[in-house]
Specification:
Blueprint lengths: L28 E8 L4 E7 L6 E2 L4 E2 L13 E6 L8 E7 L8 E7 L8 E3 L5 E2 L8 E2 L9 E4 L6 E9 L12 E4 L5 E7 L19 E3 L4 E7 L5 E7 L3 E4 L5 E3 L3 E2 L6 E10 L2 E2 L3 E2 L9 E2 L7 E6 L3 E13 L10 E2 L2 E7 L2
Antiparallel strand pairs: 1-2, 3-4, 5-6, 6-11, 7-8, 7-10, 7-12, 8-9, 12-13, 14-16, 15-26, 16-26, 17-25, 17-28, 18-19, 18-27, 20-24, 21-26, 22-26, 23-25
Length: about 350
């Protein structure tokens, strides 16, 4: 009888590791192939491609060589309100993170950090809840280094934005980090003063009117305006009586638009200055932009006095009043008028 002895040995292998990193799974594939139609592509491999995902709060590593073919995850280099002016839009600039020029980007926007409100930016700058291939646009199409605008937004609302990139048929990345910025509230600031009074009640006087002589008001009326209105703002002027009225006699020196240097009588206003710190420009509206002794009527109908067609900061208009009495006007010490100034933003 023969006895066969078998001696065995156990072999142990250790996973590659350093002090900071460990490779949890590794192996080799034996190749693969691709298949495609006009719409879809499939890339496959034969062998071991499985492994363990590794992730932190800021990064994720996934197994398989398809993962490393993905486009780089994009982010935003800017999401702002243009210095606090935008209440219904946001300016953005894409950070490509090294993607090629033909990569396309999808921009997703939410008002609740993507809990339930999820929308997508369209090429025209508006948002939609419907996802379509047309919303994937190149860096250049999204404005390049100058960026683009998201429009039709709500004032004083926080908007969260994230992006993903794709380049080719198999390389769409995951969404990148979320950037959040709030639109500002609509604003309009209007100030009124005279050259001698900083707070109401305001009064402007002529002193004595001499028949046949043109008299300028002793004070100017100064208006101040700031707004982030997309189409600017306007200041309007109107009066209670349509001229300088004497309550005791019923006589009135009518408000007119004319050259008081040659006219026999009348009452009106002329702007000597219209400036702004930024934005605008702030302009004087005809007929209050006259020179010399030309004045604009201050009637009971509300008329535009100053105007801006864009957001404006610290605009100031300086207005003078002019009056001329005729020999036929009844002498009285109570000629007066009440003038109303109104500001309206064009949002």
């Amino acid at each position: 009888m023969r006895v066969l002895s078998i001696a065995g040995a156990l072999l142990f292998a250790a996973l590659p590791a350093t002090t900071n990193y460990q490779l949890n799974s590794y192996g080799f594939t034996s190749g693969g192939g691709t298949g495609s139609t006009a719409t879809y592509s499939l890339e496959g491999s034969v062998g071991e491609i499985s492994g363990k995902n590794a992730a932190t709060a800021n990064a994720t590593t996934k197994p398989g060589y398809v993962q490393v073919q993905q486009a780089h995850v994009p982010t935003l280099s800017a999401l702002d309100t243009n210095g606090g002016l935008y209440y219904n839009k946001l300016h953005f600039v894409i950070d490509q993170q090294g993607n090629p020029s033909d990569a396309k980007y999808l921009i997703s926007v939410s008002t609740d950090n993507f809990a339930s409100n999820v929308t997508y930016l369209q090429p025209d700058g508006t948002l939609t809840t419907t996802l379509a291939l047309t919303q994937y646009q190149t860096y250049a199409a999204w404005g390049g280094a100058s960026g683009g605008l998201m429009i039709g937004l709500d004032p004083a609302t926080s908007y969260s934005v994230k992006l993903k990139a794709t380049q080719g048929k198999l390389t769409e990345s995951a969404f990148g980090p979320v950037t959040t910025t709030a639109t500002v509230a609509q604003s309009l600031t209007f100030n009124l003063a005279t050259s001698s009074q900083a707070s109401p009640p305001f009064s402007v006087s002529f002193g004595s009117l001499s028949a046949g002589s043109l008299t300028n008001s002793l004070q100017t009326i100064n208006t101040g305006l700031s707004t982030n209105g997309a189409a600017g703002a306007s200041i309007y002027i109107s009066s209670q009586n349509g001229g300088l009225l004497s309550g005791s006699t019923g006589s009135k020196i009518d408000a007119v638009s004319t050259d008081l240097g040659s006219a026999s009588r009348g009452f009106g206003a002329q702007s000597s200055s219209a400036t702004q710190t930024s934005g605008g420009p702030f302009t004087v509206v005809s007929p209050y932009n006259g020179s010399g002794n030309n004045v604009g009527v201050i009637g009971t109908t509300t008329r535009s006095l100053y105007s801006s067609t864009a957001p404006i900061t610290s605009a100031v208009g300086i207005l003078s009043l002019k009056a001329k009495a005729a020999q036929t006007d009844v002498a009285a010490s109570d000629y007066q008028e009440i003038i109303t100034f109104t500001a309206a933003g064009n949002f």
